[in-house]
Design goal:
The structure holds three protein chains of three kinds.
Chain A: H1 2-36, H2 81-84, E1 126-127, E2 133-134, H3 139-146, H4 148-156, E3 163-164, E4 170-171, H5 175-178
Antiparallel strand pairs in A: 1-2, 3-4
Helix pairs in contact in A: 3-4
Chain B: H1 2-25, H2 29-36, H3 45-63, E1 68-70, E2 80-85, H4 94-102, E3 115-120, E4 144-149, H5 158-162, E5 168-170, E6 176-178, H6 188-192, E7 198-200, E8 215-217, E9 229-231, H7 236-239, H8 246-250, E10 256-260, H9 267-274, E11 277-278, E12 290-293
Parallel strand pairs in B: 1-8, 2-12
Antiparallel strand pairs in B: 2-10, 3-4, 5-6, 7-9, 11-12
Chain C: H1 2-14, H2 19-45, H3 60-77, H4 79-84, H5 90-115, H6 138-165, H7 172-198, H8 211-237, H9 244-275, H10 280-287, H11 297-315, H12 317-320, H13 323-341, H14 343-350, H15 365-394, H16 399-408
Helix pairs in contact in C: 1-15, 2-15, 3-5, 3-7, 3-8, 5-6, 5-15, 6-7, 7-8, 8-9, 8-13, 9-11, 10-14, 11-13, 13-14
The chains are: A mainly alpha, B alpha+beta, C mainly alpha.
């Protein structure tokens, strides 16, 4: 009889405490599960983490040769020797009137003129300050004489429009692909349209073509 | 009493059966599978393959084009960094347009992952006096400079900390991504982001079919649905194959640079070493991997 | 067996009442249906039917959620003074406080559900079946504590009513333990909700250490206001008895918390206005507007003026002990805190936004309709629960009387 009483008493106690017990158990399990799912934890990525593999170091070329797009010649202007081959060179500094008058020269025009960059004898070549001849495909070396900083940055890929592969072959453009060597200053551009004002973003009445949403 | 019980249980069973039929008739098996899909990080490779295959089929049905849906994981030994030259940006917004096209962003309601701010030269970098809606005939406008902002892919991302469902996380290559099938749309991450980099699909996104990019990544530029958050992923679908993000490639003045921070020969390491960089809202300790510099 | 007859008995009593009662029910039902129509539009077309956008990504719904969590917390806070001041009907006070808390918690969770983009995906943030981001995400904590608070309060209420209905003695130890546990839980839910906003360094308006204390102080102003009015109504229409002194003491306690709240707010204002950093812009927008954008200035000053008037009405003993001014004060403080926890908390946090741009927000029709739906459903639930509680506690309604009702029918 007594045992029954005790059993009955404990059963009642247990039932009354079930809500409490289940609440505590639920709390305990939530703590246990959530705190042990370590692989899903927020990870702070450090810049020095993740170097399990040795990264392939690409040696900077000691020879200043870069695979570039061809120079952006106007149609028919090259080779220069087609016209200049049978002309007498005139080294006197002057404004050009008969030919090449479409060229507006605004590149240190106080001190420089055509023959500082174009060779007087070899018209199909450019020339460095020391007289060394350059192909038009290497015009960057010429620009680099005065614009050393830009040249240094360009060689690494930090100056200029960047296309190609970030972990492979970089695609280089000649300076003159973007900068007109005679009038280098960039013209202003028309910008793409401004973003819509958020006040104007409203519900769009859809046509029947677009399917209904999935969950 | 007994008859009462019998009647009660019969009614109960009938109503349960009716309800289940009604509920199930609205969906097909694929939709139910997608609904019950787990968090992307907990899936096995086989489950991922299955999901990616189903998505390609779904997109083909919806847009009528062949899609390649990739779930390419991060490359080993790579941590992506970005550098933007604010002495060069002219505010032409070509990056915004290229990003919208590459990443299948909704045209209406409009979403743009890159936001270009026009700032006054006299004030310097001052967000509260900046203007995002500038609309000039030609840029750059005199007396102003331009400051594009997008996801900074922080090393200490606030958005990841606050997401209640772990629907957004940082991958091993440093890109913070969103699982669009797991996001519940609570927008806590949007409140937490100090750079306004996260955007919400308030309505069903619309993309003109002829402009859709069919080369997509599960965590990146695949077409999204309404009610989920999205953001710049450094073009995860491109950079994991060695290409540059679209914004880097399109910039006509070369203001944008990108590379592997762990590679000492990369452009972005060169910039950190040789130019002076700053990060936006540095005092918040988000440690962005998006650097601004003056080239 | 006992429980099911308790349920059926409760259901029966809900549909018993006079014409005013049914008029009230019908009124709430009409409001619910009107609201549900708006919510349906939101479900099909998406949250674009609201006026929330990327710049202001939380607004009316979350404002209501925050306010209701405050009400839920404060409803239970009266338990301690009830014990200390030996207010006679402690059990009744506890029951009604907890009933209000239960309804407020359900309403606040409902506001979260209508706010998220994919309500059916809520299971993603649960532990076990989903991937709950515990302990990093405060939202995960909030869900957790709200759920626990709901369970505690619901258990106490159901147990007390069930015992009375079945003419049994209630388990004093269990009830006492749970009621005492519910008080720190009440502080807990509102602190965690405050931390939800506090945790964001991106939002300087909320990133102040005083946010959580101000939350609790203003919650303690608003919750008891509802009970103040409710107790007077119960006293008039049922056998519920409560001394005038007890009601005046409630008002007095509210004065203390109002004073603390005013002091904290002045402290915040001093820091922002005196230091005059860029963070001042949010307070400027709230109180004076920025440039042409003066949209919420009216509401913020309205809230301040109502609050100050209520403070003085409760402070001065003459007006505190006059039931007309007392009730005016209660209504004023309720609406003052409603604005202050709602729009005057959420909108300045987002205006100007993180990139310095200003988006002007005001609730759309869909948001108003959805909010009306949630509030009407909550009021309906509260009406039903109060009816059951009144019947069982004051009119001696129990399992024997159920059958009597049947015979009368």
């Amino acid at each position: 009889m007594k045992i029954n009483e005790i059993f009955y008493f404990m059963k009642n106690r247990l039932i009354n405490n079930i809500s409490l017990t289940s609440l505590l158990l639920t709390l305990f399990f939530i703590f246990l599960i959530s705190c042990t799912s370590k692989d899903m934890d927020v990870k702070k990525v450090d810049s020095h983490e993740g170097t399990e593999d040795i990264v392939e170091v690409k040696k900077v070329s000691t020879i200043d040769e870069y695979a570039v797009d061809p120079p952006p010649f106007t149609d028919g202007i090259f080779p220069c020797n087609d016209c200049h081959g049978y002309q007498d060179p005139n080294p006197v500094r002057r404004d050009l009137v008969e030919w090449h008058d479409d060229i507006s020269f605004k590149h240190d025009s106080e001190n420089r003129w055509c023959l500082d960059c174009h060779d007087i004898k070899q018209r199909d070549s450019l020339r460095l300050a020391n007289g060394k001849l350059l192909d038009f495909k290497e015009s960057y070396k010429l620009c680099g004489q005065c614009h050393g900083e830009k040249y240094r940055d360009w060689k690494v890929g930090v100056h200029g429009k960047r296309t190609g592969e970030w972990n492979g072959k970089k695609h280089y453009l000649l300076c003159v692909s973007c900068h007109n060597p005679h009038t280098p200053k960039f013209k202003k551009l028309k910008p793409d349209p401004a973003p819509m004002k958020q006040e104007d973003i409203k519900l769009v009445k859809k046509s029947e073509n677009i399917e209904s949403n999935e969950k | 009493m007994k008859n009462d019980n019998k009647r009660r249980s019969f009614l109960k069973n009938i109503s349960l059966a009716t309800f289940s039929t009604l509920a199930l008739s609205g969906c097909n098996m694929k939709e139910i599978d997608e609904f019950l899909q787990g968090n992307f990080r907990e899936l096995t490779p086989e489950e991922k393959d299955e999901i990616v295959k189903n998505l390609a089929e779904k997109y083909k049905k919806r847009y009528g084009k062949e899609f390649t849906v990739s779930d390419e994981p991060a490359m080993v030994g790579v941590l992506f960094g970005y550098a933007l030259d604010i002495s060069r940006c002219i505010g032409c917004r070509k990056c915004v347009t290229a990003c919208v096209k590459e990443n299948n962003q909704s045209r209406d309601p409009q979403i743009q992952w890159i936001q270009v701010l026009e700032m006054e030269k006299e004030r310097g970098v001052d967000l509260h006096h900046s203007n995002i809606n500038y609309d000039h005939e030609k840029v750059p406008e005199k007396g102003h400079f331009y400051f594009p902002v997008q996801c900074q892919q922080c090393r200490n991302p606030q958005c990841v900390t606050v997401c209640p469902a772990k629907a957004t996380w940082q991958e091993k290559d440093g890109i913070v991504v969103v699982d669009y099938n797991w996001c519940i749309g609570c927008r806590y991450c949007m409140a937490a982001c100090p750079y306004g980099a996260r955007h919400f699909n308030w309505g069903e996104p619309t993309i003109p079919t002829e402009e859709i990019n069919t080369d997509v990544h599960y965590l990146g530029n695949r077409p999204r649905q309404k009610g989920v958050v999205e953001k710049c992923t450094f073009c995860v679908q491109r950079v994991r194959k060695g290409k540059y993000p679209s914004c880097v490639e399109i910039c006509p003045v070369g203001a944008r640079k990108f590379g592997n921070l762990l590679d000492p020969e990369s452009e972005v390491r060169y910039i950190l070493d040789n130019k002076r960089v700053l990060v936006l809202k540095q005092e918040l300790n988000t440690q962005p991997k998006f650097y601004y510099y003056f080239g | 067996m006992n429980f099911s007859r308790f349920l059926t008995g409760s259901l029966k009593i809900i549909f018993q009442g006079g014409k005013y009662y049914f008029a009230w029910l019908i009124f709430l039902t009409i409001l619910t249906l009107w609201g549900a129509y708006g919510y349906y539009g939101q479900l099909t077309d998406g949250l674009i039917t609201t006026n929330m956008r990327d710049s202001v990504s939380w607004a009316f719904y979350i404002g209501n959620f925050t306010f209701l969590v405050g009400v839920a917390a404060a409803a239970v806070m009266l338990v301690i003074p009830a014990y200390i001041y030996h207010w006679g009907p402690i059990k009744e006070i506890v029951i009604f406080g907890e009933l209000l808390a239960v309804c407020a918690v359900i309403m606040s969770i409902a506001f979260v559900v209508v706010d998220i983009g994919h309500p059916l995906r809520f299971w993603h943030m649960l532990p076990f079946v989903g991937t709950m981001n515990f302990p990093y995400s405060i939202l995960a904590w909030d869900f957790f504590v709200l759920f626990a608070y709901f369970i505690i309060n619901a258990t106490v209420v159901i147990h007390l009513l069930y015992s009375a209905f079945n003419k049994k003695e209630y388990n004093k130890k269990l009830v006492l333990f749970l009621v005492l546990a519910s008080v720190p839980m009440a502080v807990g839910i509102h602190t965690v909700t405050a931390f939800l906003f506090n945790a964001l360094p991106a939002r300087p308006f909320w990133n102040s250490a005083l946010l959580a204390p101000r939350f609790l102080a203003s919650a303690f102003c608003s919750g008891p206001a509802i009970l103040l009015i409710l107790f007077q109504l119960l006293r008039k229409y049922t056998k519920f008895e409560i001394k005038n002194e007890a009601l005046f003491t409630i008002a007095e306690l509210m004065v203390y918390s109002m004073f603390i709240y005013l002091f904290f707010t002045v402290a915040e204002l001093f820091k922002e206005f005196y230091s005059g950093t860029e963070h001042l812009l949010y307070w400027e927008y709230l109180l004076f507007g920025l440039g042409d954008n003066k949209e919420i200035v009216f509401y913020s000053w309205g809230s301040i003026i109502m609050g100050v008037i209520a403070f003085f009405l409760f402070l001065v003993p003459k007006t505190r002990k006059n039931f007309i001014t007392l009730n005016i004060g209660a209504v004023l403080i309720y609406f003052s805190v409603y604005i202050e926890k709602g729009m005057a908390l959420i909108i300045p946090g987002f205006t100007p936004d993180v990139l310095g741009q200003i988006y002007v927000y005001k609730p759309s029709m869909t948001e108003i309709q959805t909010a009306v739906m949630v509030f009407s459903l909550g009021f309906l639930l509260f009406t039903f629960l109060t009816k059951i509680a009144i019947a069982i506690m004051f009119e001696g309604y129990n399992y024997e009387k159920v059958n009597i009702l049947k015979k009368i029918k």
